[in-house]
Amino acid sequence: MSFCSDLVLSNAKVVSMTPGQDGYALSPLCHLHIKDGRIAAVSQQPIESQNTYDCQGKLVTPGFIDCHTHLIFAGSRANEFEMRLNGVPYQEIAKQGGGILSTVKATRQASEEQLTELALPRLDGLIQTGVTSVEVKSGYGLTIDDELKMLRAAKALEAHRKIRVSTTLLAAHALPPEYAGRPDDYIELVCKEIIPLVAEEQLATSVDVFCESIGFDLTQTEKVFQAAAEHGLNVKGHTEQLSNLGGSALTARYSGLSADHIEFLDEDGVKALAASNTVATLLPGAFYFLKETQLPPIELLRQHKVPMAIATDLNPGTSPFADLTMMMNMGCTLFGLTPEETLRGVTSNAAKALGYGESRGQIVTGFDADLAIWDISHPAEFSYFQGAPRLSARLVAGELDHV
């Protein structure tokens, strides 16, 4: 990632997203000094520089962070969407080769370069809604070579766009057909072969598991977490989406960065997240698309001061949405979050969910100069109005990227 050596953003109204009420308030007109890819100063006094960008009173926020996506995949599931709407049961769709294994088949057949190319339009959708950092999971390969291929394709996105990519190994996403009826054997492969290779090649910073009745149980999940910890990788969890298995508490026990979905999370699970400072990542796109009715325990999360992130869960089966501000709107309308909570959910709390809470997601001296410049008057508009272009420019590592 190249850095802009010296730049001043002048005449900006800053929403810093630091803790407390001031972090959500608009600043008076001020000036930001960017040096070597970081924020060097924020001042109400003019800053001298030969390289100045006049924000003309526009609103400046931290760059948005989509902390949960499945951006890399091949194939389309639009036909399945249509079949379901026409009354075809999921079991019949799966029998016809549909479901997640259809995405696995298509992804296995695609090359690394093809996977990167297919992901770029989806990434562009996120970028147009202010995203400067994106987490990308594997999980549609389910073999050693294909999981590594997906992670390499995700990391290659940085060569095509101004974006920061965090990669997560999700080999424990579903049981591959080769291991039908042998989940423990597959988990053994993940722990003994895939995780060590990913760590050795530095292809991911985190390991995730779909801990659910249709995924992997607590014992299997813990084995994956143990292997991740042994190889110096962070853990995250797809937990409590369809039932309460205790996966979030297990994630917290391993100091997980985040527990994601969490619709069926109970108070004991919330307390566990609070004790470990694990982020609760809310995914309203999947809730909406699947017509779920079990709401995540928002009031309990507030009560126990668990940081809440919001993400797209961009994937072909349950959340085909490449728009983070739409998720902010859904977070308000479906989950009852406030506009401030959703903005924190895509900035400071999303940064924590990726392990970057001390360097991204706030406009603070010393933090990465990942910023978004908006043609709006108040931060509540992110969660309110949808569809009209509002992004004027982004900065990634201090490099200006005009829209």
Automatic annotation (TrEMBL):
<dbReference type="GO" id="GO:0019556">
    <property type="term" value="P:L-histidine catabolic process to glutamate and formamide"/>
</dbReference>
<dbReference type="GO" id="GO:0005506">
    <property type="term" value="F:iron ion binding"/>
</dbReference>
<feature type="binding site">
    <location>
        <position position="313"/>
    </location>
    <ligand>
        <name>Fe(3+)</name>
    </ligand>
</feature>
<comment type="similarity">
    <text>Belongs to the metallo-dependent hydrolases superfamily. HutI family.</text>
</comment>
<keyword id="KW-0862">Zinc</keyword>
<feature type="binding site">
    <location>
        <position position="173"/>
    </location>
    <ligand>
        <name>4-imidazolone-5-propanoate</name>
    </ligand>
</feature>
<keyword id="KW-0378">Hydrolase</keyword>
<comment type="pathway">
    <text>Amino-acid degradation; L-histidine degradation into L-glutamate; N-formimidoyl-L-glutamate from L-histidine: step 3/3.</text>
</comment>
<protein>
    <recommendedName>
        <fullName>Imidazolonepropionase</fullName>
        <ecNumber>3.5.2.7</ecNumber>
    </recommendedName>
</protein>
<feature type="binding site">
    <location>
        <position position="77"/>
    </location>
    <ligand>
        <name>4-imidazolone-5-propanoate</name>
    </ligand>
</feature>
<keyword id="KW-0408">Iron</keyword>
<dbReference type="GO" id="GO:0005737">
    <property type="term" value="C:cytoplasm"/>
</dbReference>
<feature type="binding site">
    <location>
        <position position="318"/>
    </location>
    <ligand>
        <name>4-imidazolone-5-propanoate</name>
    </ligand>
</feature>
<feature type="domain" description="Amidohydrolase-related">
    <location>
        <begin position="59"/>
        <end position="381"/>
    </location>
</feature>
<feature type="binding site">
    <location>
        <position position="313"/>
    </location>
    <ligand>
        <name>Zn(2+)</name>
    </ligand>
</feature>
<keyword id="KW-0369">Histidine metabolism</keyword>
<dbReference type="InterPro" id="IPR011059">
    <property type="entry name" value="Metal-dep_hydrolase_composite"/>
</dbReference>
<feature type="binding site">
    <location>
        <position position="140"/>
    </location>
    <ligand>
        <name>N-formimidoyl-L-glutamate</name>
    </ligand>
</feature>
<dbReference type="GO" id="GO:0050480">
    <property type="term" value="F:imidazolonepropionase activity"/>
</dbReference>
<feature type="binding site">
    <location>
        <position position="315"/>
    </location>
    <ligand>
        <name>N-formimidoyl-L-glutamate</name>
    </ligand>
</feature>
<feature type="binding site">
    <location>
        <position position="70"/>
    </location>
    <ligand>
        <name>Fe(3+)</name>
    </ligand>
</feature>
<comment type="function">
    <text>Catalyzes the hydrolytic cleavage of the carbon-nitrogen bond in imidazolone-5-propanoate to yield N-formimidoyl-L-glutamate. It is the third step in the universal histidine degradation pathway.</text>
</comment>
<feature type="binding site">
    <location>
        <position position="238"/>
    </location>
    <ligand>
        <name>Fe(3+)</name>
    </ligand>
</feature>
<keyword id="KW-0479">Metal-binding</keyword>
<feature type="binding site">
    <location>
        <position position="140"/>
    </location>
    <ligand>
        <name>4-imidazolone-5-propanoate</name>
    </ligand>
</feature>
<feature type="binding site">
    <location>
        <position position="68"/>
    </location>
    <ligand>
        <name>Zn(2+)</name>
    </ligand>
</feature>
<feature type="binding site">
    <location>
        <position position="68"/>
    </location>
    <ligand>
        <name>Fe(3+)</name>
    </ligand>
</feature>
<dbReference type="InterPro" id="IPR032466">
    <property type="entry name" value="Metal_Hydrolase"/>
</dbReference>
<feature type="binding site">
    <location>
        <position position="241"/>
    </location>
    <ligand>
        <name>4-imidazolone-5-propanoate</name>
    </ligand>
</feature>
<feature type="binding site">
    <location>
        <position position="238"/>
    </location>
    <ligand>
        <name>Zn(2+)</name>
    </ligand>
</feature>
<feature type="binding site">
    <location>
        <position position="70"/>
    </location>
    <ligand>
        <name>Zn(2+)</name>
    </ligand>
</feature>
<keyword id="KW-0963">Cytoplasm</keyword>
<dbReference type="GO" id="GO:0019557">
    <property type="term" value="P:L-histidine catabolic process to glutamate and formate"/>
</dbReference>
<feature type="binding site">
    <location>
        <position position="317"/>
    </location>
    <ligand>
        <name>N-formimidoyl-L-glutamate</name>
    </ligand>
</feature>
<dbReference type="InterPro" id="IPR006680">
    <property type="entry name" value="Amidohydro-rel"/>
</dbReference>
<dbReference type="InterPro" id="IPR005920">
    <property type="entry name" value="HutI"/>
</dbReference>
<dbReference type="Pfam" id="PF01979">
    <property type="entry name" value="Amidohydro_1"/>
</dbReference>
<dbReference type="GO" id="GO:0008270">
    <property type="term" value="F:zinc ion binding"/>
</dbReference>
